[in-house]
Every structure is written in structure tokens, then in C-alpha cells.
User: What shape does this take?
Amino acid sequence: MNSEYDIIIIGSGHAGCEASLASSRLGCKTLLITMSIDKIGFMSCNPAVGGLAKGQLVKEIDALGGQMAKATDVSCIQLRLLNTRKGPAVRSTRAQVDRQIYKTYMTSIVETQPNLSVKEGLVEKILVENNVAKGVVTSLNEEYFAKAVIITPGTFLNGLIHIGLEHHAGGRIGERHSERLAADLRKLGFKMGRLKTGTCARIDGRTINFEKLTAQYGDKEMPPFSFQTVRRQEKELPCYITYTNERTHDIIRANLNRSPLFTGIIKGTGVRYCPSIEDKIYRFPQRDRHHIFLEPEGLNTIEYYPNGISTSLPVDVQVKMINSIEGLENARITRPGYGIEYDFVDPTQLYPTLETKSIKGLYMAGQINGTTGYEEAAALGLMAGINAALSIKGKRPLVLDRSQAYIGVLIDDLVTKGTAEPYRMFTSRVEYRLLLREDNADWRLTPIGFEIGLIGDQRHRAVLMKRENIERELRKLRERGFEKILRRPGVTYKTLGYTEADPALTREEIAELEIEIKYEGFVKRQLNDIGRFKKIEKIRIPEIMDYAKVHGLSSEVREKLSGIKPINLGQASRISGVTPAAISILMVYLEKYRRS
Assistant: This one.
């Protein structure tokens, strides 16, 4: 097998798949090394894609030329739009998927992609020469060389699985972990930490009493997740809703002494916004019940995922707990839930391109950056793959800022502020969310994808045509005075009584048209905010900046700026502990520096 490549990707989860597809599609000879070819694109947790804020990430991945949304459409068994009672800024798409179809589809795409080779192996060492990544070494002492290396290990770095007071090494239940690669990263000088996540037990659907449960179906007229999908998979399965109760809570409280979370065995920090059921009972004693969402694992399996009761309690306790829940009195567990601890690298050691600051050509993406969730991982993998390829080709990197995309917010938060717990995307983290909606992700980002080479000419023209249709109709409405009428509550484009309405407009174009008119005042306000934001973002900071020469900065500010190495004044202003006064001093210094 050829040992010379442009880019090597370690790991084939959601980050690894997007990274390898992006780099190979941009013309780089790419090698994807995975512990198991059978687990390419595997969904370790619940069988769903999207959700609040995460749907925006998936739409942006798609608009840039990524694969996740297309895989979701192929495997979709239910699609819903969340937050419909709220404004368009926070509405998000969520899909239930067939886990097996998703994995099979993604495996097929990866394995048949030109310029991309796949190899099964365990990477144990990064080859580094003069602080430049040169390749990798596997457990079989195979050496593969490349101009860039992207690490996307998921939860496999020093993974430790917990079920009750028993624990064993593993990156996923039934799979080995990567101990030596974690040790090698420490040897290379990276500051690392420990995080914890978990998953729910799986339940035999034949033992669930669905008559006691509330069924939840998808939205019938939802468009596909991907902007490029013409028709998605149409078979649908409902989800079901049930709740924990006081008996459930009593069982959990009585067994906290057997929980690795409450006995100090688990040292890693867990996910704040998706805690285990035992953590919920402990933290919210006033709550008499907690919501459980029973999700089908697929069209051709009996298994259900009881979302909401992630746990690392012993198996016998898991059985009692589940059997105490309405509709699950006779439910049989097919696979137990478990907690898992794993290593991550402090993301402030990365540039916004996701390249490490200390080793040129070494990139990191996914849970190694401190995130949690399929969507965050895929977004980071896509950007790492893009930037590694652009660097090799001698082109300018792609850095999306906070006014351009949720992906920009995600990366900026990580590399500027770091994280002490698994990072999850929320709409509340996004300052300009009214402009960064799901529906306009294609207009915002597809031209960028086209410019770098991930989007074809036909798709690019279709997006330009969509925008032209919307703008043409906006002009007509304004010229004829219908714009003010459409702003009124309850009035829609179809009920407007507008005789010259364009019948050729698609449902998506009409929705975007209505949003732009009804929220015009808010949009203008955010555009003004973005104008001010852009001014400070444009003030670049030299990479070789010596903060010791900037008089008036405190020792703490100098230390933080030297550690983060912000690329512009805007990023510097978002570093914790860097005061407005320090930014003013920096602004004056940079102006003098520029003139000199």
C-alpha cells in the first residue's frame, strides 16, 4: 500500500467522515485510518440528527458541501421542525434516522470517494519533525507520511467505560480504546483534560406497551434536510413519550452508592445540558417526573432508544428503573446504558483553522476539541478537512466568523474561550441568529463552498436563482405597497390577495420572503450590529506579536493573549479576562505598528 499522502485522517466518526470527504473532494490524496471499517459513520448515541441549534449546523454543513444532511435524508424515518411557536431565528429541524441505513450509506460514500483510501488500523504516534507533522505510526509499526494530519478520535482517547462500580478500557462498548495516541499527544506537549458522556440502555420494542404511551409523528410536509435532496426516504415510524415517576426516583436514590458518578470513580466532567438520569434526580429533587422520548432505532430492528435516561448505574438497577416507568413495566433491556470518560485537548491550543499552534500541519476535530454531539463533530471535521486541503494547496484558509455561521460561533467559542465541560451548540450562543437561520444557510454559505471547490456549478447557480426569485418578488411587493400589509400579524403571502403573486415561487422561497418582510426592522438592527462587529474583526494581529512590548497591559492579560494568540482584535476582546481597557491599548498599539 502506498505510504505517501497529502492528508491523513485518524478516526471515521462524523468528524472523520466529513474531514476525509472534504479533503479528497478538494483534490488531496487522502488516507482515512479507522479502528474498524465496519463502524464508519456509526451513531454511538441516539438515532437522530439535528435538533435545537444542531439543525442549523447540519444545514450549514450541507450548504458548504458536506455529507451529513444527505445521509440523514437517505435514512430518515421521521422529520420535525422544532420551536414552531417561536420566531424563525430559533426554529430547527430534527430527524429520526435508521441507524444502520445511515452507517451503510456513509460507508459507501467514503469507500467509493475518488482520492480517498481507507485502512483499518490503530494509530499510536504522530510523526513530527521540527514542529511539523509528517505522518503517523500504527500499532503494527506501519508508517504513513503526509503533509497534514487530522485527529478525530471521538471518545476513544484513553476511553474508560463505566457500568455501576465496574469499569474497563474501551472507546465504545465492545471496542478497544486508544491509549498510546493519548500518551503521544501529552508527550508532544499538549494540555489535555478529561470529559465524560454517556448513553441510554436499548429496549426490545416487543416488550413495550405502546397503548399506554403518547405517539409523536413527524411533520407531514417537511422538506428534506439537505438543500440538494429532491426526495427523501418516505417510510416513517413514530416516537413515543413517557415519563419517570416517584418510584423511578426512589430506585435511583436508593442506589446512588453504586453509581460511579456519585462514588467518585468518574473523574471527568459530564455534559451539563444532557445529564444522566441519576444526575437529574440529584440536581432537581423538586421535579416529580422527567420526560422520556422513545426513539425507534430503525425500520428493521426491534430496538428503541429511551432518550432522557442516560445512565451508568449497574444493570440490575437499570432494569428496575426502566420497569418502573409507565409503558415499560415489562420492557426488556437488549443493551445496557453506560458512562464513558475520555481525554480531550484544550481547544485554545488551536487556531480558528483547527490547526494546532505548536505543530504545523496537525489538525484536530470533533470530541477531541471538547464538544459533544454528532453535528458539532461533523462541522469541525468539515472545516478541518477544508483548511488542511487549502493549506496544502497554498490557498487562504477558510475561517467563518460569528456573523456568518453557527459553525463560526462554534469554532470561535472553542479556540477563544476553551471549555471545561462537553460543549454543546445552542441558539442562545449566537448573537446574530435572526440572520443565521436554517432556511438561508444555502444563500449564506453555498457561494463560499463553490469558491473553495466543494460545490458544483449547477448547485451554485440554483442558489443564485433562488435568491434572485426572492429579491425580484420583494421589489414587486414594495413597489405595489403590499409589503406593509404582509407585515401585519396573521397575514401570509398566500392570503395577501396579491393578484400578481408569482405562482412559480417554491414553498421555501415564500417562507424566506415572509421572514425578510415581517422581521425587516430586526434584520436591519442586526446588520448594523454586524457592521460594528466587522470593524473590530478586521483589525488583524500579527502572528509574531510580542505582547511584552505593549505598555499598559497587565501580566494576566499578556499571559492570556500570548497563550490564545488571537488572530484579530475581535477575537482578543472575547478572551475571558481581557478588559475593554486592554482592547483600547491594543488598538492604539496596532495602529502605530501598522504605520511603522
Observations:
- The chain is about 35% helix and 15% strand.
- The radius of gyration is 25 Å.
- The longest strand covers residues 192-199.
- Residues 10 and 590 are 39 Å apart (CA to CA).
